[in-house]
Design goal:
Length: 163
């Protein structure tokens, strides 16, 4: 009985102490808050693809990238096992390369015209788009380190390396 009384008293003290400092005021810290990289994979439909990546209707004979930074377009399907394996890797990539590379995805079942326009016959297929030059495709799932190497070597070519 004494144990229960002591436990109750302790619980009341903890509850009172925890709530006592919360006076309803929002305290602002003098220290800047570090923002996390919140870049995420962006799902595209045809209209968004034409605007953000490549308007193949306006430029059917010449590749003209519409983006402001290199991009990866993941052609996938929700039922595809290798696509499901690639998704967390692409999420990590989108955060690690936030502000440097845009990561998009296109559901081939919902956007059949886009898949057909790019000759997508197997999934996952990644369309790697540099700022200059033609895009390349990579078919099949791959480990993160291999994808990072492709990004660094193809999408983010340093100026001093091209001399």
């Amino acid at each position: 009985m004494l144990f229960k009384s002591l436990l109750s008293a302790f619980a009341m003290v903890v509850a009172t102490t925890a709530c006592a400092s919360n006076s309803g005021e929002i305290k602002k810290s003098d220290k800047p808050i570090k923002e996390e990289n919140k870049m995420e994979i962006v799902a595209l439909n045809k209209a968004e693809f034409l605007k953000k990546v490549y308007n193949y209707e306006a430029n059917p004979n010449e590749w003209k990238f519409e983006g402001s930074r290199p991009a990866i377009v993941d052609f996938y399907a929700t039922w595809c096992g290798p696509c499901k394996a690639m998704h967390p890797i692409l999420e990590e990539i989108s955060k690690e390369y936030s502000g440097k590379v845009d990561v998009y995805q296109i559901d081939v079942d919902k956007e059949k015209e886009l898949a057909s326009a790019f000759g997508i016959r197997s999934i996952p297929t990644l369309l790697m788009i540099p700022m200059n030059g033609d895009p390349r495709t990579i078919q099949g799932a791959m480990p993160k380190n291999q994808l990072k190497k492709a990004i660094d070597d193809f999408l983010l070519i340093q100026k001093n390396e091209t001399k």
